[in-house]
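hiii, so i know i said id send this last week but things got crazy w the move. better late than never?? heres the sequnce for the chain we talked about at the cafe, plus the structure i predicted for it. fair warning i was half asleep when i ran it
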Amino acid sequence: MKKKIVKKAAAKTAQKPAAEKTHAKSAGAIKKQYLKSGTACSVTFRLPGRAAPKAHMVTLVGDFNNWDQQRTPLKRLKNGDFKLTLHLSSDREYRFRYLIDSSQWENDWQADRYIPNDFGCDDSVVAV
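okay and structure toks below
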């Protein structure tokens, strides 16, 4: 009986496309969870460790913190990714970027879109 259950579970896992499995594990993402009131959204920002493999510190810099380069540090996870959750007001778009070790800027690979900035590159945008 147990063998059948294990085989069925393995068959379900095998049906998932390989690209989807890899994407879920390593690509990082912006996750949004709207609060019941609808006036705010809990947004989780995640920078994959492969985007900053030797980083000691990553901060989230954007409209929501007046582009303060030190106020919003991300936590480094055991797998090397960096993660932070913020509550943001709904019905808005926020420009942001990741600052790695106070010297290297990185966009979010899963941003809702990108907007050119005054410095000749793009800002990531999250719409909530």
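btw The longest strand covers residues 40-47. thought thatd interest u
miss u guys!!
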